[in-house]
């Protein structure tokens, strides 16, 4: 059995928040039309050959069952002019469909919602799913990538806030 940590979860969160990250918007739709649309900063690339990425999702979130049932998942790497999307997709109390309703999107392969104003998009199928604590690590086999430079630097998240990276040169 693990010993109780000498810190609480607020302190743990605060310490982890010192690691600056990018911000992504994850979307998915099931065959029955249920939509997931959530903001995720736990994204990272994993493997080049074959191309794999991962993100972590809390198993308590309303998006979780949709992500587990959808054929395809899309990950949008957001730019600074998409902070409204990041805030909307992180709003509790809104369903995935309601979150998506407020933004411009088009259906992609297997009907996965794609946000066209995004500079970089990856889409793929679920590979392994690893439960760890209260989160689930979702690995994706990437089969579509889309790059559309917008000239706007990436959106970042640091110490609990959306920030503009000070030295992020526009593309
Ligand atoms: C900057 C930012 C990053 C986030 N990253 C994650 C993440 O990596 N994994 C996750 O499960 N939720 C993350 N969230 C929270 C989700 O976007 C969403 O608010 C949460 O899943 C609650 O959704 P629910 O109402 O569907 O339960 C993040 C929120 C913000 C604002």
TrEMBL record:
Coiled coil: none annotated. InterPro entries: Flavin_Rdtase-like_dom (IPR002563), NADH-dep_flavin_reductase (IPR050268), Split_barrel_FMN-bd (IPR012349). This is Flavin reductase family protein. Residues 16-164 form the Flavin reductase like domain. Keywords: Oxidoreductase. It comes from the Bacteria. GO terms for molecular function: oxidoreductase activity. SMART domains: Flavin_Reduct (SM00903). The keyword Ligase does not apply. Belongs to the non-flavoprotein flavin reductase family. Its EC number is 1.-.-.-.
């Amino acid at each position: 059995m693990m010993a109780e940590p000498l810190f609480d979860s607020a302190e743990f969160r605060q310490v982890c928040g010192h690691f600056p990250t990018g911000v992504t918007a994850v979307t998915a739709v099931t065959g029955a039309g249920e939509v997931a649309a959530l903001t995720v900063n736990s994204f990272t690339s994993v493997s080049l050959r074959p191309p794999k990425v991962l993100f972590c999702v809390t198993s308590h979130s309303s998006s979780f069952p949709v992500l587990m049932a959808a054929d395809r998942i899309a990950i949008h790497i957001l730019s600074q002019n998409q902070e409204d999307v990041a805030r909307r997709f992180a709003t509790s109390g809104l369903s995935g469909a309601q979150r998506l309703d407020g933004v411009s999107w088009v259906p992609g392969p297997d009907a996965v919602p794609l946000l066209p104003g995004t500079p970089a998009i990856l889409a793929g199928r679920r590979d392994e799913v690893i439960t760890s604590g209260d989160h689930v690590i979702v690995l994706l086999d990437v089969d579509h990538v889309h790059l559309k430079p917008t000239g706007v630097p990436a959106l970042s998240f640091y110490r609990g806030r959306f920030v503009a990276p000070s030295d992020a040169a526009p593309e």
